[in-house]
Amino acid sequence: MVMISESGLSPAMLAEPDRPAGHRRTRVGVVGAGYWGPKVIRNFAALPQAELTMVCDLVAARLDPVAAQYPGVRVTTSFAELLASEVEAVAIATPLTTHYALVKQALQAGKHVLVEKPLAATTRQGAEIVALAEESDRVLMVGHTFLFEPAVEALGALVRRGELGEIRHITAQRLNLGPVRHDASALWDLAPHDIAIRLDVLGCAPEAVRAQGAAYLQSGVHDVVQMELWFPGNRLAHVHLSWLDPVKVRRMTVVGSQKMAVYDDLAADKLVLYDRGVVLSATRDGHPELLYRLGEPQPVALPRADEPLRRQCAYFLDCVQRHIRPAPDGRLGLQVVRILERADHSLHKGGRYESLGWGTDTDPAVREVMATTWWHWRSAASAQLETVPEAAS
Ligand SMILES: NC(=O)c1ccc[n+]([C@@H]2O[C@H](COP(=O)([O-])OP(=O)(O)OC[C@H]3O[C@@H](n4cnc5c(N)ncnc54)[C@H](O)[C@@H]3O)[C@@H](O)[C@H]2O)c1
């Protein structure tokens, strides 16, 4: 069993909710009580550093179960009422097309914001709200929940420590039967998770993207997508996304020059390291010979932790209370949106390559925000954390 130092994982690990009694609680309002909102509500309601004060949804019937379960929480169908209240931080769990307007209004009202992925429906909108959050000195965090999954944090730590050697290829499948959306394709709905994990694990942005897919259920809304990302150093990443598949799969394979790792979110051992590879060596008579290394799979021991969404909510509050910029901040969210937008373009242009290089953003507002990238900050934070010695294996 491979052991990873708990304190060497990521900034998210610093946010376990064991703060001293009497610490100030942040007043939180949640917007959206559809599928995901109730999970966000449950987690904020359970956190000692949060005071869940208000929940808002346009549909009054969605608020009835909230009012029944949390009698001390005010419910409203008016977002303006929530913004005018004493709520300090707003968690937004509404459909993608509403994110820009709701986040902008919340920031303008002086609230800190946790918005569900993806940050916004266009790069232009995303850049505007990232700039607004920074100008108004408010915390803006995007709910890339898988970055709070211990197996993903451990995978990132293994890669950053060079345990796998040079990373060559990453492939992933995110498949299931539904839930089918109407306002966002399988690309916009599912790919944010895989893109965020790759940005985090590799610590750099891709140079190019292409995507191909098909829309079977609704015209123009792709149900099945194959996306390809090229990272610097000839590192290729593939993602297969579908909500039209009989079997749920959440799997990522990282192939390095020394070792390989498989992260399977549905397996008992979520992260397994393989000391496996192929080496091409020249023999005496000049003919090449392939040498296979076939080490036993080694499950990676993961720290016991709360559910990723609970840790995400706790980390957001930690950033609000300590007034620090989150690691999965608006800039990470914006980079994800930028990649999604170009991938979507490729999808509608028959799978042509779209460059993501510097200078390809023609919009000055986007260029300005992209000039400082999130991962410079993240790498510095990670390097600091990962100087902690690892546990014995
Ligand atoms: N992090 C994750 O793993 C994860 C998982 C699922 C969904 N999500 C994200 O959560 C968000 C919501 O997804 P969902 O599946 O819950 O959608 P949903 O359609 O089930 O629920 C959205 C709710 O928002 C309400 N709403 C819409 N506009 C509103 C407005 N202007 N003011 C107040 N309420 C409004 C709707 O009435 C509805 O109840 C999406 O961004 C989605 O990508 C994230």
Summary?
By secondary structure, the chain is α/β, with parallel strands linked by helices.
Task: Explain what you see.
The chain has helices at residues 37-46, 60-69, 79-84, 96-108, 123-135, 150-160, 186-202, 308-322, 330-348, 364-370, 374-385; strands at residues 2-3, 26-31, 50-56, 74-76, 89-92, 112-116, 140-143, 167-177, 208-214, 224-231, 235-242, 244-256, 260-264, 271-282, 288-301, 354-355. With 393 residues, it is α/β, with parallel strands linked by helices. The chain has a ten-stranded mixed beta sheet with strand order 1-15-14-13-12-8-11-10-9-16. The protein has a six-stranded parallel beta sheet with strand order 4-3-2-5-6-7, sandwiched between helices. It is 34% helix and 28% strand. The structure holds nicotinamide-adenine-dinucleotide. Nicotinamide-adenine-dinucleotide is lined by residues 31-37, 56-59, 62, 79, 93-96, 98, 102, 116-117, 143, 145.
What form results from the Cα inertia axes? globular
In angstroms, what is the radius of gyration? 22 Å
The class by helix and strand makeup works out as alpha/beta
CATH architecture of the largest domain: 3-Layer(aba) Sandwich
CATH fold-level topology of the largest domain: Rossmann fold
Instruction: List the secondary-structure elements in sequence, H or E.
Output: EEHEHEHEHEHEHEHEEEEEEEHHEHH
Query: What percent strand?
Result: 25-35%
Number of helices: 11
Biggest beta sheet summary: 10 strands, mixed
Distance between the termini: 7 Å
Bound molecules: nicotinamide-adenine-dinucleotide
**Percent helix range:** 25-40%
Q: What is the name of the CATH superfamily of the largest domain? A: NAD(P)-binding Rossmann-like Domain
Task: Estimate nothing, just give the exact number of structural domains.
Answer: 2
If you average the pLDDT, what whole number results? 89
**CATH level-1 class of the largest domain:** Alpha Beta
Low-confidence stretches: 4-21, 374-393
The total beta strand count reads 16
